[in-house]
Each structure stands twice: as structure tokens, then as C-alpha cells.
Design goal:
4 copies of one chain form a homotetramer.
Chain A lengths: L1 H9 L8 H13 L3 E4 L15 H13 L7 H4 L6 E6 L6 E7 L14 H4 L15 H17 L7 E7 L8 H6 L8 E7 L7 E3 L7 E10 L15 H13 L9 E10 L9 E10 L2 H21 L3 E10 L6 H12 L6 E3 L11 H10 L3 E7 L18 H14 L8
Helix pairs in contact in A: 1-6, 6-12, 8-9, 10-12
């Protein structure tokens, strides 16, 4: 697993361009006897969000091939359909168990400082501006380690085991497309997991609930340029629309039933000092402690985005580029996870809830679907010691934490009949 | 004239409620042999702007009667149609000469300081919150003085003399309605006049051009109130819409072809500190050095007014409550006015243009119509020494300046055949 | 009590002008044997907030006399020091029990509709623009009823009973001044109570915790007026500063540790459409689920209030006109209250917490002081059927709910030795 | 001249990095017998504005050497002191004549379309992102052509001829530094000239007056980043400060004494969607029809820039990166220019004023200094047919227009004793 993780780390691929990673995952799952579904079979064409431009996809696919992608699998993923599902049917009756592992890196330039272990030990990312700074390299490796282990213990298993390798979790862009492709429809018991998030090494959280529902929106205002000295009246000022949107977005009312958020994280407008800005681009996000609160903020945000364009007679285009729901881990499942975790030597403590205000996570889409179908779902966290915080250029995990994760999850699968389902 | 002026000053009546003033004007014109038209004959029902509420009109009509209005004429003016036109047909051929005098006071509480002459001499306004602080009491008296004089010299006159006593000049609300009623349609030569405006006593301006085209807009945003502590999300915040409008109205681009203006002079919003404001009222005005510039600012303003409502999902209602055009006094007419003014003893100097940046004036509507019909029009200023600036609570004129005005205008009428018309 | 309540209702007096009410309270307490402290003895001169102008105070004091205030007591209250404390020392040892009742009405015009009971039955407020629309008339009557009853049962009591009749609870302006005057310093057990607040008749809440910490701020921007057409550059625009403040105040960040609020409830700016606004007045409030959150919002608000003035080079003056803290009713005291309430026939149900998100309440200042001194404090709600919501022009209570309140509170005092104190 | 112009065009160098251009100019002037001053002798160290970072200067100096710069001269210019002055003293008495030619290119990527002549004929700019899109390549060539011609006619000349080759006119950054270095102090008669600007081929403008006084300001807000979901209260939002600045900058009052402008042409803020923006950069400019109006706008702008930072408790740094004054060409000099221009065959028409609203030009700094010292100054335009507007990626001039310019300017110098000086 350490080797795999370092390999994925070195060839970090960000959301929707996990061509090399996904091809290696698919290839290995197939080798170990899994039925593999890939690409458009498991990623709905219309439900993807925040997909990069076509030429960027093409360049990255080409690079993946140069960097050792398994050529056989690339056509499935071409165009950014980089999801993989591996299915292991046992001979014994039992539930369909879904396990989610995300594969994408972040758009961050990794540190080349000598005190950064991946740099020192030679597996720092060689892909410029892409870095595994959130541990998804470990997630993919844990998934593979677990898949290999379970394939070797097939006779001791019951039910069906479904490994779901998800693209584009960063920006909460990928999960919805796998849900819409039907991947979750037969899943009875579902676990998504994450490493780190501030939980110390040796500790397991059986079901984190703190995720905020969120929507990510890209907004572009398009006006008309004009010389600011010579003929200001001929311009349509996209920046004035954008600045009004910024101030007013932040003024969306607080909600009395829980936490809400809105942020304009990025604004870029204009082409030159003496030109009325003809374009402005915003990266916006809304969040809510409940789905309803997020929808309230979102609806207000869209009114503001449109209204500010109308004020300055400029065009506006906005696009939903990411979405996630709140999590609500099933109590019964959490109890079962706590039971099996107790039996793992490496687990030194267990918590039922994360102490940290979490951000957002689109595995919540999967959890929501499973629960709506009457199944159980939980979001498990495996603690590890971090060299630096998530999304930091010096982020690094303790690799032996992957052992704890594989052991816990394998016990989870092996003992599934101890979990009484309705 | 001094007696009349002090009487009008004491019983000051603001725009559209000049019931007493107009009834006295109509009564005297009739007495002196003028054909009098009044009320809806000379004020178009649909073209009035900024008319006060019905009950306010009714109260003021009642008060006018109590204060000595001529009862016979009140029915004509009832409901706020306080315009009067007096026509004197001579037996000799000649042009139709139009002369405009405005009658309305301002919504200002007059000073009760003993150094304010009207207070000292006992003719301070007794109508609370209404004051002749712009000299329209003198204008009305000049008009009457001139009308009486000319009626006595009828044999020496030629053509037709048309006295136009206009309501609601303040806020540029009344002229359009008289133009739309057809009052200007037969006028060949037109003079509107004003006293003061910074011109010293003894000086005459033959044709002021500096007026800005303007539009006055009342805006009301209507949202939904909610308790700001308990359920802020249930509110629709009219004040946020209004505040966005204020900032963005002021950001309408400058115009490269001339001066422009925009102002939000008054904003009132909200009912209590702990309530999301459900209403906001704005008094807005736009101006332009040309009609086109004013229209540019106005069009942008309306986009902003509507867009800011859309941003906060509140209703918006706006109403045009005043409008004026730019003036452009006819060169030929100015020359003639300079000639006759020279012959008046009290005139010590003559200028062809006002040195002061003027505000706006709706006689420009009348000038525009006359010129469009091929006639000549000018805006004449008669200088006077002011106790305090226009619209100040201690504004006061030098009464003998009215003599200079009547003499100049009577010479203007008497010698009209010296003005060669096409 | 009904008679008292209707009398207070008819002669409603708003915050800091409870001259008549306070004089009647003081007079009766004295009559029943209480040691009475009034005016500056119990209201700190420097800690009052949101006091009306001196002439308003004077007019209302004069009116109070005309409407039957007890002349002897007025000098104590003159200038707006309308607090009263009545102390009953028993002969038995025991704790000092503080009981808070607020006396002020709201600045609301009461309904004159015939379906409004006070109008129908002839005790509608005759004081224009003032109305008991929050039940403080009932609170004062309950306080008096309880005081009379206890004075008659003095032998059965132990410890010291301290009745605290507070002015200016609306706007959270008065409690701090009584705390700062030392009124709470010897109190061991404290109960503030409120009627209604959405709790049904027959129900008692033993200790409401939902109050938000809050600060009320009045802001005035002062710029320079100028003619908007003639010389806009000579103005300093107070409305632009205010509008910027409004938008930016609403954009203060949400706080991850709990609910926060900010509201600009009222904005009034400008004097005329064509004048650059030289003044703008805002009524602002901040709130927080904890005192720390409110302080965070407040600190940001003050930066914004000052910064927006600096932007437009106008002066700004702001004043804290109200403050309250969060409540945190003592668990032990709540349990005791539940015990005694159970023994009251009229009490049909008891809750330990209010289901309604409450606003703010400055009795929290008193609770805070008592608890800091090692005492116990609780905020008790007595349910009643409301004709219309609090602060509505048709608000009305069910008068017999006052019985339930007096019985519960008298049992509370009588059995105080059942409450084990440290 | 055509050859020179094409060479400069190909090796376009933007403001403060005209290393190659300036070295060739200095080298040739020296060769032709001019006394040459260069670098810090003619560019004041402290008065340069908008100088690029040191490493950018260094890279461009290196490139200049690679592209044929005259090595001998480079040390003078090193660090971005790329001004050159060439002085020709004649033996006859007479005035000091100053002639300004600017040398810098724009930060624009030149078109590689085959219908763009420089591309077709092989002298398109090979320096990425730099292009002579405003004709300064022609200006430099005209200056050199004129310098060569005059050096050959030295005996026919009188007084002193001073060629001023200015860096960094774009962004109005360079002139002030040459003025402050004393370059203009002995100049009696000064002409700055420009090609194109909408004037047709064959036409000369003897003295353009339409330039607006301007100031260019770079603004950076620096706040504190924080996770927008997890702990928004820990951020200090630089974008909110910037957005407030944008809206309020545009709301600076119009000025009644003439045209004014303000523009935020570029805004870049934030690093990621889910991060509170910790930085925001703005490119701002102000303009005025008079120096006083520009100063009024600038003073207001600085208040707004600072106040918006204070509102959001972020740091702000602003820097003046460009400045120009208004031009006011001397009437006597214009008349003389018209006389000599008439004698040039290529000149088909002469205007005394440009019909086009011009932008800004920092030769106005030089004109201002000369006039303050009692000299005469004018801004001359030589018409030419343009392939596309100034600052367009396909901008191109008609090369033979350079002949008209050289002939007119040489006649101007040769006949200088016809210009009667005081």
C-alpha cells in the first residue's frame, strides 16, 4: 500500500483527469477477480459538475499515458469519466456493501522543501500544480489494499462487496454523477471514509455528522468595454455588477434554524486600468447546516447574481459546479462500526462524532441515496498524524495509519451478518 | 404690487394647492377684461406630476376658502388643477405673446426671527411648512401688475397677449400639464421670467441657457417584515435593496458629452430597530446638460432601481414626479429683449447669459413647445438683492425690483412689432 | 389586579417616562410596609441607555401628574430615573430573594378597532403612540399583587424579599442601570418573569435559555449639504456613508460557534430631493448566541460604522442605547420552580425550556450579576392566550393568567427553604 | 526612417525596459555629433512611477543585449533609467528648443494574422506580450530622422536643439522623472508630438488641448485567509473591502466645473472558492478636465480606499504609479506652427484643435514646467491612416506620414527666429 500511495502521490491527478490513477485501479481490480465497471457506465454524462475544458482533459489523458496509465482502460475514461466500480459477488447471501474511495488530487503546487518527506524521499508530485494534499492517494491505496485482501478471503464473505472509486471529490463535483448513474441503487450498507481531518493517529470516528450542505457556483458577468477616459458612457461595467453581487451575497439573511455560509472566494475582473471592465468572474459557494438552509441561501444568491446584472445591464451566466448534502450517519451502523473497530489492535480510541467543524463532502450524496432506499450509511474517519493541515503544500500523512483503516474495514465486511438489517 | 406680494407671501401655498392664489389671479384677470381659462381647461389631467394625496388637496382647498379665496373660482381648481390663463385680444394684428408666471410656494417653514423682514413687518407665512422662498409671490404680483397695466393700454397693443399662471413649478411638476393641455400651441413669442437667482439688482439677463434637463423619481421598495432576532430568514429586506440602489445610482457612468447628475436626496426605511425593514422610500433625481444625457442617466437609474429590487426579491414601484428640459433661449429674441431693456431707467446693466450654474426649470417644457412650433422663446432673469439664498428660510427679495420687471416686460409687449418674425 | 392592570394599560408610559406607573408602585409598596428605594438610589446615572431628550421627559412627567401620578414620588423619578425597589425584611433568617417586574409600554399606537377588548371595554391607551403591547402592565400588576399578598403573610416568610420594578426593558435599556446601582448585589435567588411569549395558558416554563446577547446602537452621520445640481462637489454625502454601512454591516461574517444577527432596522437620511444629504440616522442592533459572538459582531459593526464615515469624509457619532446578555437559568433553581409550580392548581403543564426562539431581554444583566456573585437565577414564563402577537397593535392577554403567576411566585417565596443553597 | 521604425517595431520594449531602443538612440545621437545625456542624468531616481520589479528589469536588459542593444550604453540605463537627451548647440544665439519623442511599447500581444502588415512583412514584434500599438516606434524614428537632418544643417540653425527621448509614456509614468531631473529647466520652446489619434493623413493639429489630468493608483488590500465553511469569523475579507471601494469610488461626486472620471479597470482577489479572500489588487485611475478636478477626485478616492480597509479591518497599501496634467498649448506657438506647417507640401489641412476627446499624456508635465518658466509649449498631432485603433492588436500606421512630421518639425526649428519670443 505504501508503494501504491507513493506512486499515486508522485503522479497526482486532479478532479476529472484521474486517468492514470483510475486505469491502474481498474486494471488491478480486474486482475483480482472483480467485475469492473468504468467510465460512462458509472458516471452520468449530465450530472458531472465542474468539468475542465476539453483540451485540458485531452492533455492530461495524454500525459497519463506517458506516465504509465494502462492503455486498455483509457478509452473508458476519455473525456473525463474517471470513475471505477469493482464488484465482488460472494456465494453466500447477504447485503450489498458499498465502500467509497476518492482518487483526485488538488490544484496545489507541492512544496519542494527538504523538510517535506515526499520531496526528501523522492515521491513529490511531478505534475505541476497538482498535489495529493488531502490524502486521497491514501484512500485509493486503502481501497486497493482492502480489495486485494477481500478477494483472497472471498470464501469467508457473504453478500456483495462494491468498491466505488470516485473522481472529483474536491469541489464536491463527482459523487452526484455516480449516484445518478445508478451506482448506489442496490447498496444496502454504505461506508465512505476519510483519513486525518484532525483526528489523532489510533483514533476512529464511527460516523461524522458535521458536514454542511453546499453548492458551488461559477458566475461570469459580460458587459461592454469602453475607454474610461474617452467614452465611459459606452461601457457596460461588469465589475460594478460583480462588486454589487459580492456585497449583497454576503448580506443574505442568517437563518434561525441553523448555521449558514456564503463566500465569494475569487473575483477576477477587467483587462486594463483605463478600460471599463467588460467581464468579471466569481467563484461562489453557499452552505447550510441543513439542506433546506443551503437551498435558502442558494435561492437568495441566485436572485442577487441575476439582479446585479440587471442593475448594470450586463449579461450573466452562472453554473452549478459542485453540490453536496449534509451527512447523517445511521446510528445502528455507527454502533456496529464501533464494535468491529474495538477489535482492531491499532485502534486505541473510538469516538462517535468528529470534534471538528467539518467542511463539505459529496459522499453525502451517496449516503442520502442509500438511506432514501432504506439502507444504512456512515462516514468513518481514520485518525493520522499530519505534517501540515489539509490543503497545505506540506500536507503529509503517517503511512501506517492505512493499516488501521484496512483492518477496520475488512472486519466490517467480514462480520457484516452481525449487523442486523431490517 | 407690494400689497399683493405680501398677501401671497402671508398665505403661501405649495405646488398643486395654490387654491387661494389662483382664485385671486383668475378673479382679477376677469375683472380687468381678460378672457379667463382655468383648471382642467389649461391643466391636462394625465400630465400632472407629483400631485399630493387627495385628502391633502381637500384640506388645503378648505383652508384657502377660510383664508379668503374667491369661492366662485374654487370648483375649477378643485382636485389640484390650479392653473390660470388670461387672454387679451387686441384689435391690431400681431403675434400671440405668451408670458409665464409661477405661483407656488415651497415646503419650508419660514423663519420667525425678528431680523427677517416678513416676520418683522407682519406678513410672514401663516401656513405652516409652506413659504415663498423662491420669489414666486413676486412673480405672481409682477404678472398681475403687468396684466392690469396692459389692460389699461389695450389700444396701444397689437396681437394677442396670453398670461400663463402656472402651478407647481417647484419640483418641475406643473409646466408639462399646461403644455399638454394645449396652452402653448398658438404662442409665437414666449417669455418666462424669474427674479433673483444671484443676479444683482438693476441687472437683466436676456436669456438664461444654463438649465439642466431633469427627471424626478419617487421610488418605493416593499418587502416583508420579520423579527430580526427570531426569524431573519422570513424577511424581505427593502432597505438592502434601497442601499444597493443608492450606491449604484451614484455609480452611473459620467457622460463624455457633458455634465450629468444623479442624487438620492431622501431615504426613509424601516419601522423599528429589531424588524427587518419592509419598506423604503427614496426621492431621486437625474440631470443632464442635454436632454440626451439626462435620458442616459435616467435609463441607467431605472435599471438599477429595478435590479436592486430583484436582488432582494422585494417589490418596487417608481413614479416620475417631475420633468424639465434644457433651455435654449432664441438669439433673436434675446437681442430684442436687450434692446427694450436698455430703454428702462431701472435697468443698469444687461447680460446675455447667467453666470450661475442654474438648477432646473420646467418653463423649459413651454419653451421647447413654442420653438418646435417655429416660435421664439427666452428665459429672462430680473436681478434683485436677496436677504438669503433661494430656498433658505430667510429668503427675501427687494420689492422695488418688481417695477423693473413690469417696465421691461411692458416695453417688450408694447414694441413687439420691432421684433421681426418670419 | 385586573383593575390595576387596566389602569396601567390606559395610561401606558414608555421607557424612562414611567412616572405615573412608578409613583403608584412606590406609593402602594410604602403603604403595605415595604422599605422603598426609588430614582437615583436604584438607577445609576451613567448606566442608563437610550434615554429620550430632556423636553420629552419633562412633558411626560407633567402629563403623569395630570393623569393621577402620586406627586410625592415624582421628584425621585424626575429626569427619567423611574426605577423602584421595595424591600420586605422578615424576622427569620433566609436568602435575599429578588423578583423583577418591568413597567414600560411600547411606542406603538394602540388599535381602536371594536374587536380589540381594551377599546371595547374602555381602557385602551389614551396616551398617543404608547401602548402596553408586551404585557408589562400585567407584570407590574402581578408584582403588586404578590407584594400585597406577601406583606399580609409576613410571618410565614423567611429571609428578605426584594421587589424590583424596572423601567425601560423595551430596547434593553434599563436593567444595566439598576445592576450598576447595586440593586442585585445582595440577591441570592433571583427570578425574572414574563407573560405570554407564545406559551399557552396554563403552562409554566421554569427557565428560558434562548435569549440572544444583544447591543443596540444609534448612529448619526453628519456631512455637508449642497445643491445636487449646482455644486455636487461641495457636498459630503451622509447617505452614501450610511448606505455603505448598511450593506457592509449585513456582510459581517457568520460565526462558526453559534447564531449571530445584525440588523439596520431604521434609516432616515436627507432633507430634499435636490440636496446632497447632510445627515443620516440609523438604528442598528447586533446579537449573538453567546456574549462572545455578540461582541464579535459588535466590534466588526463599529469598524464598519467608522470606516464608512471615513470613506465619505463625514462625521459619525454612535451611541450604545441598549444591551443585554444571554440567559442561562440555574438548573437547581429550575428544578425547585418546577416543584412549586406543580402544586398550583392553575398550572396544567410545566416545561423546562421555551420552544420559541426568543429575542433579547435585559433581565439577563441581573441574572448574570446574581450568578457571578454565586447566586441562582432563572427566567420564568407564565403562559397566556394572546389576542395577537407581542408588539402588535391588537396585543391582549387573558387576565386570569395573572392569578397563576401570583400563586406560583408566592409558593416560590413561601417555600424557599426547600431550595437548598450552598 | 522606415527601416528604423520596423526594427523598433520588431523589438518592441515596454515602459522602463526600452534598453535596446534607448541604446540605439544614444549611440546614433552621439555618432551625429550630439552631446548625449542618459540614465540617471536625465531620469530622477525618486520621481519614476510604475517601475516593474527588479528581476523583470534584469531579464529585459539581458534580452536587449541578445537582440542587439549597444553594450556601451546599457550600464547607464540599467535598473530602468531608459531616458536619453541629445543636445545640439549651434553657434548662433537663439532659444533652447525642446522636442519630446516617446519610445515605449504596450503590454499587448501583437496580432499574427496575415492581414496585419507587420506580420505579413516580417517585422511583427518578437517580444512576447509587447507591441508598438500606439506609434511610439514611429515617434522614435521621427526623432532620429529629424536629429540626423538637423545635424547636417547645423550651420543654418540658431539657438540650442534638445532632443528628449522619453521612456514609459504609457501609463503616464515617465515624463515626471525627466522634469524632476531638470531636463526642461532651460527649454524656451517645447513641442511634444503624436502620430495618428484619429487625425487623417495629411492633416496637422497645431496644439491639442483636450487631455485630462490623471492619476493612476495601484491598490492592494491584505486581510487574513480562513476556511469559509469552518471558521469564517477568523478571516479578514480583503474582497469585501475591495468591492466596497469599487462601488464607492464610482460614487465620487461629479464636479460642476468640468468633466471628471474614475475607473477601477482591474480587480483580482482571492485564492480559492472556499477561502475568505486574503488579498485584493485594484488598478484605479482618476481624471479631471482641470488639475483641480483631478485632485478633487483623487482626494476622495484615497479616503474611500482607506475607509473601505478600515471597515473590514484589513491593511491597505496604495501607490501612485502614473500622473499627467492637462495640456494648454500656447496660442502664439500654435500660430507659428500653423505658419510653418502651411509651407510643407505633404500637409493638406491644418486644425488648431483635435476633434477627438483625448485620453491623457504625460508630456503635459513637460509643457507645464516650460510654461511655468515663461516658455511656450504645444502638443502637435500628425495625422495618419490607421489600420486599427490605438492599443488594438492590429494597430498600424502609414509609414510615409513620418515624412510630413519630419518636414514640419525641421521647418519649425529652422525658422525659429520667426517666432517672436518675449
Amino acid at each position: 500500500m505504501v508503494e501504491w500511495r507513493r506512486d499515486f502521490h508522485k503522479y497526482a491527478e486532479s478532479g476529472w483527469v484521474e486517468f492514470r490513477t483510475a486505469s491502474l485501479v481498474a486494471s488491478r481490480l480486474e486482475e483480482w477477480g472483480y467485475t469492473v465497471k468504468a467510465g460512462k457506465e458509472v458516471v452520468d454524462v449530465n450530472a458531472r459538475m465542474g468539468v475542465p475544458p476539453a483540451d485540458f482533459l485531452k492533455e492530461n489523458e495524454k500525459r497519463a499515458l506517458d506516465q504509465g496509465a494502462v492503455a486498455k482502460w483509457l478509452p473508458s475514461f476519455s473525456g473525463g469519466f474517471t470513475g471505477v466500480v469493482g464488484i465482488l459477488k460472494t456465494n453466500k447471501p447477504g447485503p450489498v456493501i458499498g465502500l467509497r474511495f476518492d482518487m483526485d488530487a488538488l490544484d496545489i503546487q507541492e512544496s519542494d522543501s527538504e523538510d517535506h518527506v515526499p520531496q526528501r524521499d523522492g515521491y513529490v508530485s511531478i505534475n505541476e500544480g497538482m498535489m495529493h494534499a488531502c490524502g486521497h492517494d491514501a484512500h485509493t491505496s486503502i481501497g486497493l489494499g482492502l480489495a486485494k485482501l477481500l478477494s483472497e478471503m472471498k470464501d469467508e464473505l457473504s453478500g456483495t462487496i462494491k468498491f466505488i472509486f470516485q473522481p472529483a471529490e474536491e469541489g464536491v463535483r463527482g459523487a452526484k454523477s455516480m449516484v445518478e448513474a445508478g451506482v448506489m441503487d442496490d447498496v444496502d450498507v454504505f461506508v465512505a471514509s476519510h483519513i486525518g481531518t484532525g483526528i489523532p493517529a489510533g483514533e476512529v470516528v464511527s460516523g461524522a455528522n458535521g458536514f454542511l450542505s453546499t453548492t458551488k457556483i461559477d458566475v461570469t458577468y459580460t458587459g461592454v468595454a469602453a475607454h474610461a477616459g474617452g467614452s465611459p458612457e459606452e461601457g457596460k461595467n461588469a465589475l460594478l455588477a460583480a462588486a454589487s453581487a459580492v456585497l449583497n451575497l454576503h448580506s443574505i439573511p442568517r437563518h434561525s434554524s441553523g448555521q449558514s455560509r456564503v463566500n465569494v472566494g475569487v473575483l477576477k475582473a477587467g483587462s486594463g486600468r483605463n478600460i471599463i471592465p467588460a467581464s468579471a468572474h466569481l467563484k461562489v459557494e453557499t452552505r447550510g447546516e441543513t439542506i433546506e438552509i443551503n437551498e435558502f441561501i442558494l435561492e437568495n444568491a441566485i436572485n442577487i447574481i441575476k439582479g446585479s446584472a440587471a442593475m448594470h445591464d450586463v449579461d450573466v451566466h452562472y453554473e452549478i459546479v459542485g453540490e453536496a448534502k449534509t451527512s447523517d450517519s445511521s446510528a445502528r451502523l455507527k454502533t456496529y462500526i464501533e464494535e468491529v473497530a474495538k477489535e482492531v489492535d491499532e485502534v486505541r480510541s473510538i469516538r462517535s462524532e468528529s470534534p471538528n467543524a467539518a467542511g463539505s463532502e459529496d459522499a453525502t450524496y451517496m449516503m442520502d441515496r442509500v438511506k432514501k432506499n432504506g439502507g444504512l450509511a456512515s462516514y468513518v474517519i481514520f485518525g493520522t498524524t499530519l505534517a501540515a493541515g489539509h490543503h497545505n503544500e506540506k500536507f503529509d500523512i503517517q503511512e501506517d495509519s492505512m493499516i488501521m483503516a484496512v483492518k477496520t474495514l475488512s472486519k466490517f465486511v467480514l462480520n457484516i451478518d452481525r449487523l442486523k438489517l431490517d
